[in-house]
Design a protein that fits this description.
two-stranded parallel sheet
């Protein structure tokens, strides 16, 4: 019953969000035609979803074109990326454009994930989807993490997002999986909205 209600809610919310934010897609598209921002509107990265099924998470592109190749080609930069919980420290990522920094700070880069939610690859509330190398952080509880759909908003995000690294992130994400309920989802939703307005842990 919980899963059916969540899916119905996901479909309604994602359709409404995509309609409301459709003008923003056009604005970002136009801005992506100029300067350092020049390039595709969307960035797709492979993440691991429910039952180990891989999918491409969608975001407004916040980096220069071929940013992943630049990261992989720089051993020092890649080592810093891994050491900082698979994200470079705020203000220290040379790949992020000025527009991208704004999109990340305001969490507007996440808007295209409503397409992932509508398609059923993600849900509104759930553990954040990870890249494959991050799975080792979950040890023998990987299958538990991947027993549910990943979410656009999660308990880890609600408690500080990028300000909270591993292994504490694992504890928060797994706590959600073990205690998931509609009431818990609503609490997480409101906490995430509050964090977004405060730009907490977003970079």
């Amino acid at each position: 019953m919980h899963a059916n209600v969540k899916r119905f809610f996901d479909i309604i919310v994602s359709i409404l969000a995509l309609v409301c934010f459709s003008p923003f897609f056009l604005i970002v598209f136009v801005l992506d035609l100029f300067g350092d921002n020049r390039g595709p509107l969307l960035y797709a990265q492979v993440r691991v979803g429910k039952n180990h099924k891989k999918f491409k998470i969608l975001k407004f592109r916040s980096m220069i074109v071929d940013a992943d190749k630049k990261l992989a080609a720089d051993p020092e930069l890649f080592a810093k990326y891994v050491a900082n919980n698979y994200k470079l420290p705020s203000g220290e990522d040379p790949r992020v454009t000025k527009l991208g920094a704004f999109l990340r700070k305001t969490s507007l880069d996440e808007i295209p994930q409503f397409l992932n939610i509508l398609s059923g690859e993600m849900t509104l509330i759930g553990p954040r989807p990870v890249v494959e190398p991050e799975l080792k952080e979950y040890g023998n509880e990987v299958d538990l993490l991947l027993s549910v759909k990943p979410g656009a908003m999660g308990y880890w995000q609600a408690n500080g997002r990028s300000n909270i690294g591993y292994p504490e992130r694992c504890n928060l994400e797994l706590y959600y999986v073990k205690n998931a309920s509609l009431g818990f989802d609503l609490r997480i939703l409101f906490k995430n909205i509050y964090s977004i307005f405060r730009s907490e842990g977003a970079f």
